[in-house]
């Protein structure tokens, strides 16, 4: 085709330009924002973590992880903490850990917080605080019903882990570990709470959840920390089943009595 063929004649004889075909672009790759969100979620779900740990989990190069971490730090989504690790000779060396901030956690909060808070405020004003507690227990009872089969099917020593897995499936990013304090037992940790902002105003939600944990596990539990009260994670101490008859723990107030 000659250069003059780049134009064509209309039926009236006028010359009209022919628009060139668009150049095909390569397929889109995962967006920077999507990968950055994955980094932030891993930090949220796993607590303070190193850049090397994030790199291994995400399959990204250390340089790529550092770029996302720098952007998250600049946006106040995460913060750095220094922790000491110890080698074979016992010499401590600082490790830079990355933890989620309140602003970062807020990015994962559901958009219906204001609606839920307004609804609970209306219930409290119309029917009193006990109506809020009753509503909280009713809401938690549905979770308890769904979690019951998985917890009951687990071996006695795996029930806290089974509950943690059920909570994680609902977005609570939960895990179980041995309790560090003397006396044994376990700790149930929730790194994310979808209703944290609402629970900060209405602790009845946390209290109802704690009571449900005790019923599901069949042993006294004690809430040690909550995201709603400004702690980094929600931590619940689960008494070893064999010790349950020695202590009577008030799951609502978090207190324990001999």
Uncertain ranges? 1-30, 244-258
| Computed CA radius of gyration, to the nearest angstrom | 27 Å
Q: Class of the largest domain, according to the CATH hierarchy?
A: Alpha Beta
Question: Into which percentage range does the β-strand content fall?
Answer: 15-25%
CATH fold-level topology of the largest domain: Muramoyl-pentapeptide Carboxypeptidase, domain 2
- Major β-sheet annotation: 4 strands, antiparallel
Count of DSSP helices?
A: 9
What is the global morphology? Answer: globular
Distance between the termini: 96 Å
Task: Provide the spatial order of strands within the biggest beta sheet.
Answer: 5-6-8-7
Q: Your description of this structure?
A:
43% of the residues lie in helices and 19% in strands. With 258 residues, it is an alpha+beta fold. The strands form four sheets. Strands 5-6-8-7 form a four-stranded antiparallel sheet, covered by helices on one side. A two-stranded antiparallel ribbon has the order 1-2. Strand 7 and strand 8 (234-238) form a beta hairpin. Helix 2 (51-58) packs across helix 3, helix 6 (129-153) packs across helix 7 and helix 6 (129-153) runs parallel beside helix 9. It is globular and about 55 Å long.
Question: Any chance you could write out the topology, listing elements then pairs?
Answer:
Blueprint: E1 7-9, E2 15-17, H1 32-46, H2 51-58, H3 62-74, E3 78-86, E4 92-100, H4 102-106, H5 113-127, H6 129-153, H7 159-169, E5 174-178, E6 186-190, H8 196-201, H9 204-217, E7 221-225, E8 234-238, E9 248-249, E10 256-257
Antiparallel strand pairs: 1-2, 3-4, 5-6, 6-8, 7-8, 9-10
Helix pairs in contact: 1-3, 2-3, 5-6, 6-7, 6-9
């Amino acid at each position: 085709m000659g250069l003059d063929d780049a134009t064509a004649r209309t039926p009236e004889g006028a010359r009209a330009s022919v628009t060139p075909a668009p150049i095909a672009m390569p397929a889109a790759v995962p967006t920077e924002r999507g990968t950055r969100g994955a980094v932030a979620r891993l930090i949220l779900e796993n607590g303070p973590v190193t850049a090397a740990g994030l790199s291994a989990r995400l399959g990204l190069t250390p340089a790529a992880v550092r770029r996302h971490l720098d952007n998250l730090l600049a946006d106040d989504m995460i913060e750095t903490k220094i922790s000491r690790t110890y080698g074979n000779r016992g010499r401590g060396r600082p490790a830079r850990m990355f933890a989620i901030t309140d602003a970062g956690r807020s990015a994962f909060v559901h958009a219906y917080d204001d609606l839920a808070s307004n609804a609970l405020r209306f219930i409290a004003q119309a029917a009193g605080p006990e109506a809020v507690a009753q509503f909280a227990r009713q809401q938690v009872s549905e979770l308890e019903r769904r979690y019951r089969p998985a917890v009951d099917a687990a071996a006695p020593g795996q029930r806290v882990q089974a509950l943690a897995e059920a909570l994680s499936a609902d977005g609570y990013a939960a895990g179980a570990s041995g309790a560090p304090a003397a006396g044994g037992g376990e700790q149930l940790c929730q790194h994310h709470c979808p209703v944290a902002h609402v629970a900060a105003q209405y602790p009845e939600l946390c209290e109802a959840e704690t009571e449900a944990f005790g019923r599901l596990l069949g042993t006294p539990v004690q809430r040690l920390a909550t995201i709603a009260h400004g702690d980094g994670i929600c931590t619940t101490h689960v008494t070893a089943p064999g010790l349950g008859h020695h202590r009577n723990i008030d799951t609502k107030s978090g207190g324990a009595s001999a």
